[in-house]
Amino acid sequence: MRLSTPLLLTVLPLIAGKVYLKDTFDNMDKWVKSSVEKFDGAWELSSGEWYGDAEKDQGLKTTQDAKFYALTANFDEVFDNKDKDLVIQFSVKHAQKIDCGGGYVKVFPKGFDGAALDEETKEKYSIMFGPDICGYSTKKVHVIFTYKGKQHLIKKDIKCEDDQLTHVYTLIVKPDQTYIVKIDGEEKASGSLTEDWDFLPAKEIKDPEQSKPEDWVDEEMMDDPEDKKPEGWDDIPAQIVDPEAEKPEDWDDEADGEYEAPMIDNPEYKGEWKAKRIKNPDYKGPWVHPMIANPEYAEDDSIYHYEDLGAVAFDLWQVKSGTIFDNLIITDSAEEADSFMKDTFSSDMRDAEKKMFDDAEKEKKEAEEAARKAAEKAAEEDEDDEEDDEDDEEDEEASSGHDEL
């Protein structure tokens, strides 16, 4: 008898995205500091004064005011995002209530030497992404791509968070040439790379062979040629002598000079004469410059594509230090990045951080109020002491006077 072969059920594992760099900043082993003297800002590992989880929220912190910072890490392997998503995600906590400074990262091609990062090489990045704050006018999320050797800034204004809590910034670039920017998992901007950046020249340009005809009339209204200025119009002065003014009785011609009555606006004055306006019979409407196809335009479906991404850097200037960066991931999977955020930035952690921050603010205000009251009390006591001293002096003077008698 032929035995039947048992049915083998094969369970295929879920295909996870590939991670090219992930760091929760348990240490700084992956990171290289610039050896260039200008970029000497010192870093440390810290969770800050408020956090959701002391261990998970340890990140990379700037520690010196008015400094340039530069720190670079290489990817685990070169990232070619052809036909793949490109996802950059990290958290930023401006615990110092930053007034002017960057909170972004820069992604570089393979072979970038982080130790040699300087004024020139720091601009050789492929992508720059993240928040930037300076004063009241600049509170934006930068999304800058380098395309054919030129840096292109996003044309949209994406507002960044400006409080003192942790926020997660996510950039997703897709092979269909679309993008998404998220903050704390919530979409803040999305669209087309070709529409929201000026990567390509315009599809159409004004025909250089065409110009507005000399006899083209684009004035819809004109002065009525039959309307004439009334005779004597210009003879009416704008001001006249005040007929009610009288020379003061105490006016002295020799001392005060010849009396001149003050001038007032002439109620008969009609202003500058202007002819009536009528429809222009020769009006042809606005002239529209004819457009032609731009010979320099060429579609490019590979704008999204970077074939050799290999390093990421924090290249920053901060007036006031204290920013904490954490939970950096660069991957080809939005799902992978989202899962990482849920693990490192859960709603419970956010609530705990917010409570700890609120408690710290409350304690700070109470301490400031107590200090204010103590200063007021000390001032009052000083004033009472001065009054007591004055009274003592008066008593001494009075006693001295009686002794003389």
Automatic annotation (TrEMBL):
It holds the Pfam family Calreticulin. It comes from Bigelowiella natans. Disulfide bonds join 100-134. Its main location: endoplasmic reticulum. An alpha-D-glucoside binds at residues 104, 106, 125, 132, 315. Belongs to the calreticulin family. GO terms for molecular function: calcium ion binding; carbohydrate binding; unfolded protein binding. Keywords: Calcium, Chaperone, Disulfide bond, Endoplasmic reticulum, Lectin, Metal-binding, Repeat, Signal, Zinc. Residues 206-215, 348-378 have a biased composition (Basic and acidic residues). GO terms for cellular component: endoplasmic reticulum lumen; endoplasmic reticulum membrane. It is found in: Endoplasmic reticulum lumen. GO terms for biological process: ERAD pathway; protein folding. Residues 216-225, 379-398 have a biased composition (Acidic residues). Residues 1-21 form the signal peptide. InterPro entries: Calret/calnex, Calret/calnex_CS, Calreticulin, Calreticulin/calnexin_P_dom_sf, ConA-like_dom_sf. This is Calreticulin. Residues 206-236, 348-405 are annotated as: Disordered. The keyword Zinc applies. The keyword tRNA processing does not apply. PROSITE patterns: CALRETICULIN_2, CALRETICULIN_REPEAT.
